[in-house]
Amino acid sequence: MTRRGRRVVVTGLGAVSPFGAGVKAFWQGISAGVCAIRPITLIETEGFRARIAAEVPDGIGGSTRRSRADRLALTAAREALDDAGLSSAERRDAALLVGAVGGGMLEVEGWYWARRRGRLAAGGGALRAILPGSHADVLAWRLGLDGPRETIVAACSSGAASLALAAELVADGVVTTAVAGSADALTRVCFMGFNALKLLDPAPCRPFDRERRGMSIGEGAAFLVLEDRETARARGAVIYAELAGHGMTTDAFHVTSPHPGGDGMVRAMRAALETAEAVPADVAYVNAHGTGTLHNDRIEAQALRTVFGEGGVLVSSTKSMIGHTMAAAGSLEALATVLALTHDVVPPTVHLDTPDPEVPFDCVPTVARVATLPAAISNSFGFGGQNVTLLFQRAC
Amino acid sequence: MLRPVVVTGVGVVSARLVGDGQALRRFLAAPPAASPRHVVDGAVLAGLIDGAEARRTSRVSQLALAATRLALADARLDDAGAAGFILGTEHGDLHSTIEFADGYLRTGPTGLSPLLFPNTVMNTMAAATTIAVQARQLSLTLNVRTVGGELAIARAARAVASGRLEVALAGGVDQHDPLVAEILGELGAGFEVRGEGATVLVLESLEHARARGASPVGEILGAAWRGLPTRPHGVGRRVDSTAITAALQEAGLEGDVIAWVYTSASGDRARDAWEEALLERALGPQRLTLASLAPLLGQHAGLGALRVATAMWTAASGLLVQPVWGGKAADDRTTALVPVAPGPGLVHGVARGGTHVALVVGGPP
């Protein structure tokens, strides 16, 4: 499939990350190679092997009657819209696509825990926000977005899928503007589940390191404003990058393990190149899914080698600094990729002390790298074998 | 340029209807009366899933998988490798999430099941199904209150019409659970006619269907989804529908062509009244015949997809299936077959919170 329809550009950025609210804090943190993974404070961790995560610090604002995840989403989406400078009339017809997994589960867990332990269960109002789809309804209401509205649950690739689907709506001319991204707050279910699967490293994760022992979890939100390029130019918008291609595939192999040959990952990356009418040599940087688990990193490296050739691109993992932010990962890492393009700086992979020989790429250990980046991709792979690759090009 | 999109296969697993397109047509030709209870018989579901799959997958995933297999067989599509999979759901596998949490609450960290954890992510039904039928293109799970099925069909129709997919398997699924029922009560939706089940349709470009000799049961002439301004979980006041306008525009039709609508009415009185007001404003009040399938099969995400398949039957047969729920007594429940003008009709859904879907549906091209 080749590039089709209108060209889609990024004109607004917003984030809440373990470095705090705002795109500036996010970029300062990841470009400086700061690790935000620390002991967990939001939920009880007694009796678990891994007890760390990358939490968003206090001060995200918003009504505490809303779920934490709703507030993360609202803060990030509002920043993106303000950054794009869209008027309320321009917002009205904009599409809203939100990637989500946990919804308001953190607050519902509090209610359910108390109820099961026989205590008077206050906070039943939290049930209203339990569904992942809650974020979209809150954002639409608060930000005045009445265009096509969707909530995509694609596990850890939810955020990237929301951006890909939004780009399709813009490219097809269904809308001229879309707000897309994702959000997730830390939840007990997520923390306990990855502990149960023994996929968490008790220390901060070390993607692509030979001694890696698993992932770290995190939370956050990021939203991007996507626009038809001609509309953006006509209104004099700042264009950060072009979302030139994307690929979405399914392994159809296993619920939690990627296809051992990386088949679905390869197809997603090749589809992204094809839709962007690009060749592998056009891509200088890969913001990897890079979770820090033994198998994922090895299989992703194998897939990268198949597509780009050994050592063909710079590769780094933002998760080494902010953990795996679940649904939010795809959009936070897309944001990191866009910022890398705009600054010509590749954020590093921290805690990478002993490169794994099975990962034959320069994974930018510890310190960010200045590099000319005409195009870059962001990979997101999730439970259920859901693979999404986004290809961004420098704005022109 | 959008391509014509047709439906070539139907799979339904619900409380009172299990089967393919032919079973659906038989059911619609002699529909039963409305019913207050809509739970899928466990023995019937077990007959559709092999033992190994039953051990590996949760009940809601089994519902999705069984409906998908029925749809693929109905479409005579042996290889699903080129198909995308788009599934709408309201509650996902909340039952497994509760079971997973209960393991911890009973015995602490040692009570946690690593096998249950993946089911807590709402895409678990899509994952189980794509693995089982080997669908290897995009897989999407769309979460929204009450209109997940029609939203999935609309999204799939767009993917096929735009040429991004040749074949899409799309529909919806939900499972009834006592805690879910309690939650719905907390949300003020306790009066709805709720149910469970899955419906999956096979969508193809007309060209693709013809090339492989498939027989379309109907055509999706236009599809659009939008948001309406309202508080989260609330019912709005605005009654101008951009979704209906956009769907009609895509179909190349004027509103006065539409004489009948399958709505998402489910007994939530405020939401149902809002939907009627939206339809009246968009299509005119006097001449419309409205019907909801919720009293017949219970509101669940699969019902949106079933409404699309039913609308195709109505477009071809000129008979609208109109269940009536007059009151609590069994005598007050009937289902009428109302004659309508054959030709295109509308499938419409609006959810609390404002997600709004419209599909213009016709009979076989």
Topology:
The complex is a heterodimer of chains A (396) and B (365).
Chain A: E1 8-17, E2 20-21, H1 23-31, E3 38-39, E4 52-54, H2 68-84, H3 88-92, E5 95-100, H4 105-116, H5 134-143, E6 149-152, H6 158-171, E7 177-184, H7 188-196, E8 217-218, E9 220-228, H8 229-234, E10 241-250, H9 263-275, E11 285-287, H10 294-308, E12 314-316, H11 319-322, H12 329-343, E13 345-346, E14 369-370, E15 375-382, E16 386-394
Parallel strand pairs in A: 4-8, 5-6, 5-7, 11-12, 11-15
Antiparallel strand pairs in A: 1-2, 1-9, 1-10, 3-4, 7-9, 10-16, 13-14, 15-16
Chain B: E1 5-14, E2 18-20, H1 21-29, H2 42-46, H3 51-56, H4 59-75, E3 83-89, H5 94-107, H6 124-133, E4 139-143, H7 148-161, E5 167-174, H8 178-186, E6 197-205, H9 206-211, E7 218-227, H10 242-251, E8 260-263, H11 269-283, E9 289-292, H12 294-297, H13 301-317, E10 319-325, E11 333-339, E12 345-350, E13 355-362
Parallel strand pairs in B: 3-4, 3-5, 8-9, 8-12
Antiparallel strand pairs in B: 1-2, 1-6, 1-7, 5-6, 7-13, 10-11, 12-13
Description:
- The complex is a heterodimer of chains A (396) and B (365).
- With 396 residues, chain A is α/β, with parallel strands linked by helices.
- Chain A has a single domain (8-391), classed as Thiolase/Chalcone synthase (Peroxisomal Thiolase, Chain A, domain 1).
- Helices cover 33% and strands 21% of the residues of chain A.
- In chain A, strands 1, 2, 5, 6, 7, 9, 10, 11, 12, 15 and 16 form an eleven-stranded mixed β-sheet that branches. Chain A has a three-stranded mixed β-sheet with strand order 3-4-8, with no helix packed on it. In chain A, strands 13-14 form a two-stranded antiparallel ribbon.
- Chain B has 13 helices and 13 strands.
- The longest helix of chain B is centred in the first third of the chain and has 17 residues, at 59-75.
- Chain B is globular and about 65 Å long.
- In chain B, β1 (5-14) and β2 form a beta hairpin.
- In chain B, the strands form two sheets. In chain B, strands 1, 2, 3, 4, 5, 6, 7, 8, 9, 12 and 13 form an eleven-stranded mixed β-sheet that branches. In chain B, strands 10-11 form a two-stranded antiparallel sheet.
- Chain B has 365 residues and is of the alpha/beta class.
- The interface between A and B is large, with 69 and 65 residues.
